[in-house]
Amino acid sequence: MILDGKILSKSIKENLKNIICASGKEVSLAVILVGQDPASCIYVKNKTNDCHEVGIKSLEYKLPDTTKQEELMDLIHKLNNDDSVHGILVQFPLPEGLDESAVVKAISPQKDVDGFSKINVGGVLMNDKDCFVSCTPAGALELIKSSGIEITGKNAVVIGRSNNVGKPMALLLLNEGATVTVCHSKTQNLKEITKQADILVSAVGKAHMITEDMVKNGAVVIDIGISRIDGKQVGDVDFENVSKVAYAITPNPGGTGPMTRAMLMYNTVKAAGLL
Ligand code: GUN
């Protein structure tokens, strides 16, 4: 089975659009892009397009890479205090010299639609349904759940321990009742562990590192990694061969990527009090 993020994200966005329409409320997301990192420019453009599709007002702030930390903080404080703004997203990575962790701390947790703040990450840990869940792991979980795959009691293996993806992914699966193992760059005998996985989630960013021999027959394989070969986006998973042994698998691109953006829209509608 192919876990198609394009199809599912479309239906989630359609549903959100209907909710906004029915409410008659104006929902708005402020997106701040500092500098001109090419990948970030594309991500921000995609997010703006999603906002248009869903009927969310998108406020774009494009700042030069000479922006000082203080100017960025001032803008965040202004947006925190603006009741017409429901969500705030500062696109990462920031240009050198700017402090990302200070930015995460400055954004009001109630407007932190990325789900990066301590309050929201803590909310995920405590299985608090009121918090904002980091969009990439939230989208990956939604792909698994919406396809009817049972998670409770399964062995889940997450490769990657980043604060925004690997760690919250592991917590979400744990909250669903999976037995979770987190692997990372220092893990020994990776293949022995991944072979045990009923659900294998890879969030590394190393092209095609997950090969057929690392995957249990009938496993569910979720590919969150993004890297490039000759300028073309590829995932962590050798899709062509792993799809022969997996029960369900995400394509990459077209799997978890579109789901991340759908969950950003979901969090923004939630921040506006409509969910
Ligand atoms: N850069 C790459 N992915 C993301 C994301 O999900 N949120 C933010 N703020 N920056 C990113």
List keywords for this structure.
single chain, five-stranded parallel beta sheet, 10 helices, binds guanine
Give me the secondary-structure topology.
Elements: H1 5-23, E1 28-34, H2 38-54, E2 57-63, H3 69-80, E3 87-90, H4 100-106, H5 118-125, H6 135-146, E4 155-159, H7 166-175, E5 179-183, H8 190-194, E6 199-202, E7 220-223, E8 227-229, E9 232-234, H9 239-242, E10 248-249, H10 256-271
Parallel strand pairs: 1-2, 1-3, 4-5, 4-6, 6-7, 7-10
Antiparallel strand pairs: 8-9
Helix pairs in contact: 1-10, 2-10, 6-7, 6-10
This protein binds guanine.
How many E strands? 10
Low-confidence stretches: none
Radius of gyration, in angstroms, nearest whole number: 19 Å
For the sheet with most strands, the description reads: 5 strands, parallel
Mean pLDDT: 98
Q: What sort of overall outline do the alpha carbons produce when their principal axes are compared?
A: globular
Bound molecules: guanine
Strand content: 15-25%
Q: Strands across the major sheet, in which order?
A: 5-4-6-7-10
Span from first to last CA? 30 Å
Q: Helix tally?
A: 10
Give the H and E element order. Answer: HEHEHEHHHEHEHEEEEHEH
Oligomer: single chain
> Structural class, from secondary structure content?
alpha/beta
Instruction: Report helical residue fraction.
Output: 40-55%
